[in-house]
Amino acid sequence: MKKIAFKTLGCRLNQYETDALASRFHSGSYEIVDFNESADIYVVNTCTVTNQSDQKSRQTINQAKRLNENAMVVVTGCMANNYKESLLESKAIDFVVDNERKTSIFSLVEKHFRGEVADPEGFDHDVFSYEAAYKTFHTRSMIKIQDGCDNFCTFCIIPKVRGRAISRPAKEILNNIREVIDYGFKEVVLTGVNIGRYQDEEVNFELLVEQILNLPGDFRLRISSIEPDGFSDRFFELFAHPKLTPHLHLCLQSGAESILLKMRRMYTAKQFRQMGEKLKALYPDFNLTTDIIVGFPGETQEEFDQTVQLANELQFSHIHTFKYSVRTGTRAERMPDQLSEKQKNQRSEVVRQISDHNKRAYYNRMIGKHQRMLIERIGSDGVARGYGENYIPIRLKAKNVTRNTFVDVVLSHLHEGKELEVCAVLASDHINA
Fold first, then answer.
1. Virtual torsion, Cα 341, 344, 346, 351, nearest 10 deg
2. Secondary structure string (H, E, C) spanning 195-242
3. How far from chain centre, in Å, is Cα 258?
4. In the chain, how many H helices and how many E strands?
5. How far is CA 114 from CA 49, 117, 178, in A?
6. Distances 75 to 18, 50, 94, 126 between C-alpha atoms, Å
7. Residue 433 scores a pLDDT above 80
C-alpha cells in the first residue's frame, strides 16, 4: 500500500477538491498520511491569489522533496495554471496538473506506477467530476456548486486561473449532499469562486439554497465566502430557517466608493452597508465576517479611513486582511501610485486591531447564549472543540460527548489561548445549575 500526503493552500474550494481527491485515493487502497511524514506521493494544491500565497506554495513543494527525495510530487491548483511553464522546469516536481484536470490526478498516479506514459494533458477538462468525499480532513463537508468568475476585478487573476463562470447542475449538487449526509456529515458548506452568481437553468443561488434546506436529515448548511451582489429580500429571509447558519463571509475589499470603482467591484459601499445593517436588524446575533484589501494603488489616507469607518460600523467579528499584491496581467498592475510595503503594513495592522477588537466584543456579547455546537475534535485533555451555528469557536469540557455530533451548549466565558475561543457548558448542566 503506497502512502500519499496532501497539502491544501488557499480557499475552501481547494479544500473541497483535496477532500474529494483524498477520498478517491483512500478507496483506491492508498494510505493517507500527514504531509509532514514520509510518503510515496505528495499532492500540493496551491494558491496564487497573492505573492505571499506563491511563496507558501513554493515552500510547500520544496518541503515535500526534502521529506522524501524519491517521492512523486504532484502540483495542482491555481499556481499550476498561473506559472505552469516555470513549475514544469523544477526538478522538485514530477507533474503539474491544472485546475481543469485536477480530477484526473488519481488516474495519472495509477498510470505512472503501472509504468505507462502519464501525461496530464491527455485527460479531459472536467471541473465537476469529483466523487462525493466520504473521507475528508474535516467534520464539515465542502460541496462545490460553481467554478470560475466573470467579474474581472482589476486586481484579480482568478478568471485567468479558474476560467469563466460555470455552474454545476442542481440535481448533481442535491445528490452529492444526500450522499454526504448518508456518510454521516453534520455540516455542509457551499463553496465555489463566485457562488452568488450560481445559475442552472431556472435555479439561481437562492432557490438552490432553499432546495438544500428542504432535504431531510439532521444537518446544517453554511454558506462560504460570497460576493455582495444581486441579493433579493428572499435571500435574507432564508436565514430564518433553522438549518441555515447565521453567518456570512461577505467580501467588502474597501469601504471607499472611489476604490471600489477602481477595483471594478459590482457593488457600492452604500449597498454593502445596507446589506450588513439589514442582516443585523433581522438577526441581531448574526455573525458577519469579511475580506479587506489595504494599499490598493492610489489609496489615500482618506479612502483608507472610510474603510476603517465601515469596518467599525458593521463590527465584523473577523477581517481577513490582504495587503494589495501586484498580479501580472491585471489592470491594477499598470495603475499609478503603487503604495510602499511600509504603508501597506501600517494599514494592515490597523485593520487587524479592529478585527481583534470586534471579535472580542462579539464573543463577549454572546456570553450566556445558547449555541448548537458541532464537535470536531476531542483532545487528550478531554476538551472538545468545534463551532456553534454562529461560527464561534467553542471549548467544551464534558463527559460522554462524541466527535461529529451536535450538542446544545451555553457560552460561559472567553478563553485566552493561541486563538481566542469561548468556553461553554452543556445546556442541560446549565439548567440544572
1. -150
2. HHHCEECCEEHHHHHHHHHCCCCCCEEEECCECCCCCCHHHHHHHHCC
3. 28
4. 14, 20
5. 36, 9, 35
6. 12, 18, 8, 17
7. no
Q: Which residue has the cell 447558519?
A: 245
Enter the DSSP assignment of 400.
Answer: S
Q: Is the pLDDT of residue 128 over 90?
A: no
- The CA distances from residue 116 to 21, 104, 107, 109, 113, in Å, are 21, 15, 11, 10, 7
Q: What are phi and psi of 31, to 5 degrees?
A: -95, 120
Contact 241, 213 (CB under 8 A): yes
Q: Say which residues have a Cβ less than 8 Å from residue 300's Cβ, sequence separation at least 6.
A: none
Mind listing the pLDDT tens digit for each residue in 287-305?
A: 999 999 999 999 999 999 9
CA-derived radius of gyration, the chain: 22
Residue at 72: amino acid letter? M
Supply the pLDDT for residue 218.
95
pTM: 0.91
137: number of Cβ within 10 Å:
13
Pair 220, 389: CB distance under 8 Å: yes
How many residues are given for the chain?
Answer: 433
pLDDT on residue 430 = 66
Is the CB of residue 297 less than 8 Å from the CB of residue 335?
Answer: yes
Cell of 6: 496532501
Q: 276 Cβ partners below 8 Å, 6+ apart? A: 250, 288, 313, 314
Listed in sequence order, the residues at least 6 apart from 310 whose beta carbon sits closer than 8 Å to its beta carbon are: 252, 255, 269, 272, 273
The C-alpha atoms of residue 110 and residue 104 are separated, in whole angstroms, by 10
Share of the chain above pLDDT 70, in %: 99
Separation CA 304–CA 297 (nearest Å) = 12
Cα–Cα distance for residue pair 256/295, rounded to 1 Å: 12
Pick left, alpha or beta for residue 293 (phi over 0 → left; psi -120 to 50 → alpha; otherwise beta): beta
In the chain, the N- to C-terminal Cα span, in Å, equals 53
Residue appearing with cell numbers 451548549? 409
- Yes or no: say if 223 and 209 are a contact pair by the CB < 8 Å rule: yes
